[in-house]
Amino acid sequence: MSDAGATLNLSDRTALEIREVFAGRRRGMGSALLFAGPAVIASIAYMDPGNFATNIQAGARYGYSLLWVALAANLVAMLFQGLSAKLGIVTGRNLAELCREEFRTPVVIALWIASEIAAMATDLAEFLGGAIGLSLLFHVPLLVGMVVTGIVTYGVLMFERSGFRPIELIIGGLVAAISLCYLAEMFIAPVDWGAAATGSLLPQLPDAAALTIAVGIIGATVMPHAIYLHSGLTQNRAPARNDRERRTLLRFSNREVVVALAVAGLVNMAMVMMASAAFHNGHSDVAEIETAYHTLTPLLGGAAAAVFLISLLASGVSSSVVGTMAGQIVMQGFVGFRIPLWVRRLVTMVPAFVVVALGVNATNALVVSQVVLSLVLPLPMISLVMFTRRRDIMGAFVNSRLTDAAAIVATALILALNLVLLLQTFGVDIPFLPAS
Q1: pLDDT bucket at 375, cuts 50 / 70 / 90
Q2: What are phi and psi of 220, to 5 degrees?
Q3: Who's near 90: CB < 8 A, 6+ residues apart?
Q4: What is the pLDDT of residues 93-149, one digit of tens each?
Q5: CATH code, residues 36-425
Q6: Residue pair 129/48 in contact by the 8 Å Cβ criterion
Q7: How many other C-beta atoms can be found within 10 angstroms of the C-beta atom of residue 359?
Q8: CB 3.0–4.6 Å: which of 4, 91, 225, 270 could bond 182 by disulfide?
Q9: Are the beta carbons of 88 and 233 closer than 8 angstroms?
C-alpha cells in the first residue's frame, strides 16, 4: 500500500485517508484536517474586497455601533453554507445541477443568466480589490494592477489540475494571511474593547444611512456564488457511499463551517473595529479603500497601512480565484457540460476590465456590484431552502423543523433588507428612521 500511495498525488492520498476514517481505521485530531477545505474556500467570500469597503464605511461613520450586524450576518452565513454543504454531500449534486434538473427550462435559463450577472459583479469587486492593493503598493495604474491580478489568479487556478487539495491549501494560506493581518491591526489600533462588546451585542441603527450600510454589510457577507460553490466543493472530494458515511461527512463539514466562518466573522468585525478606532473620531468621512490606506499612515503609522494593504492583496487574489471556481460550478451545473478554465475566466473578467478602462470610479463600481449581488442573492437562497426541505431529494437528511424555520426566517429577513437597500439606492426615504 505504501508503494501505491507513493504514486498518488496529494488529493488522491487525502481521499484515500478519508476512506480510512470512514472504515474506522483512522482516528484522532488529524482526521478532522482531512475533511477541512470546502468551508475554508467558501469563507473567502466573506472576506473579499466588498467587505473591506462596507466595513470601513461602517466603522468610520458609526464607530462600533454596527458590529452586531457583522455578527448577525455571519450567523446567517453559517446556516446557509452548512445547508449548501449538506446538499452536495447528501445528493452528490451541486445546487446549480439540481436547479437544472428540478425547474422548468425558462426558470433554469433565468437563474443561469442571473447567476452569470452575479458572477460578473463579484469578479468586478474582487479584481478591483487586488488591483487597488497593487496600485497603492507599487504606484501602478489600476488597469495594470488588474492585469497582474488576472495573471496571478490564473496561475493559482492551474493547481486545480492536481485535484482539490492544492487549491484548498493555497486558499487556506491566504485566509491565514488575512486573519493574521487583522490580528496585528488589533494590536496596532487603539480599540475601545468595552464599546466593541456593546456594539456587538446591542442592536442599534442611528439613522437611515446606517441601515443602508448595515444592509451593505449583509449583502457583502452572504454571497450568491458562495452558496452555489460550497455544494460543488463537497460533492466530489470523497463521495459518501451510504448514510453512515454521509453522517460522518456532515459531522466534519458542520464543524468546519462553524470554525471557518467564525474566523471570517472575526476578521469582518476586526475590520469594523480597526476603522472605528482609526477614523471615527475626526475622520468619519473616510469611505474609500484608497482614502483609508492614505489616512492610516499618519494616524497609526506605516506598519498599520502596510498590513492593511497585504490583507487587501490576499483578499483580492484569493476571492478572485474562488469566484472563478464558483463561476465554473454555476456554468457547468446549468448548461450540463464542462467549460474550459480560460473561457470561464474571460466571461467574468472582461466586464471588469471594461469598467476600469472606461474610467469608472473604483468605489462607485464596488457599490454598484453589491447592489447587483443583492438583487440576485434571494434566488440561490430560496432554491437551497426548497431543496433541503424536500424529503424526496434529501431522504433521511431533510431539514429539521427548527432548521427549516431558521432558514425561511433568515431568507425573508434578507429579502426585506435587500429591498430596503434597493429602495434607498433609488432615493426612497425610510419613514421609521431619522435622516442621516
Answers
A1: confident
A2: -85, -10
A3: 240, 246, 250, 394, 395, 397
A4: 999 999 999 999 999 999 998 888 887 777 777 777 788 888 888 888 888 888 888
A5: 1.20.1740.10
A6: yes
A7: 8
A8: 270
A9: yes
Q: Are 397 and 156 in contact (CB under 8 A)?
A: no
User: What single-letter DSSP state applies at residue 358?
Assistant: T
| 221-230 per-position pLDDT tens digit | 777 888 999 9
Instruction: Please check whether residue 358 is in contact with residue 352, taking contact to mean a CB–CB distance below 8 angstroms.
Output: no
* C-alpha span between 277 and 196 (Å, rounded): 10
What is the reported pLDDT for 261?
95
CB 292 within 8 A of CB 286: yes
| pTM of the shown model | 0.89
Largest CA distance in the chain: 71
pLDDT in tens, 251-299: 999 999 999 999 999 999 999 999 899 888 877 776 667 778 777 877 7
Q: How is the chain split into domains, by residue range?
A: 36-425
Q: Report d(CA 300, CA 282) in Å as an integer.
A: 14
